[in-house]
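Most newcomers find our protein records easier to grasp once they have seen one. To make this concrete, we reproduce a full record directly below:

===
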Amino acid sequence: MDGASTKFSISGTTPYANALWWKQLGGKDSAHNFIYDVYYYLKSPSAPQALEFDVNQTVGSKWFVFGTECVLKGTPHWDVYDPYNHRWVATSIPCKVPKVYTWNHAVFEFHRTSTGRNEFISVTINGIKSYFNRSYAPKTGNSSTVNVAFQMDMNSSATDYSVWLDRLRFTYW
């Protein structure tokens, strides 16, 4: 896109294998609002099982996992992560299979509530905003940190593929 994108790749023979990349940003216990803004590009958009975009915050003894996953197989849709029960929860928000050789723009909005829950607010893909309106209790943690992550999941055939990320901007306050 701007000549400074990062290429992420996954390959192998293990069905449903995944690869995770993350960036630790230090502690920011006072942060309650998070925006993950990124452009992504695929040459083989039918290859992934899912693409995952996450934010994590640990405050004291609570670990807030803002996990979102674009499930591309079956009926493509967005999942959100329920950290307390350690499970993905399907939403009714569609996640369209990206067009080949096309940059897509994703913006995720999250909030840590005053009552100690992680709230999934919205996802905007290529200018179309959908609201999750979901919140979950955090799981147990024991540090002070904020990080942003991207994960690639392989399909049942372990099809190799690559994803390019560009203009990743993470804002929190």
Observations:
- The two ends are 28 Å apart (CA to CA).
- The mean pLDDT is 96.
- DSSP finds no helices and eleven strands in the chain.
